[in-house]
Amino acid sequence: MSSVLKTYNLTKSYKNTNVVNKLNMSIEKGDIYGFIGKDGAGKTTTIKMITGLVKPTRGQINLLGDINRNKQVENFKRIGAIIEYPGSYGNLSAEENLKIHKKLMGIKDKSSIKETLKMVGLEDVGRKPVRKFSLGMKQRLGIARVLLHKPEFIILDEPTNGLDPVGIKEIREIILELNSKREITFLISSNSLSEVEEMVNKVGIMRKGNLLEEISYDEIQKKNLTGGKASA
Ligand SMILES: Nc1ncnc2c1ncn2[C@@H]1O[C@H](COP(=O)(O)OP(=O)(O)OP(=O)(O)O)[C@@H](O)[C@H]1O
Ligand SMILES: [Mg+2]
Question: Taking every annotated instance into account, which residue ranges of this chain make up the domain ABC transporter (predicted)?
Answer without folding.
Answer: 5-232
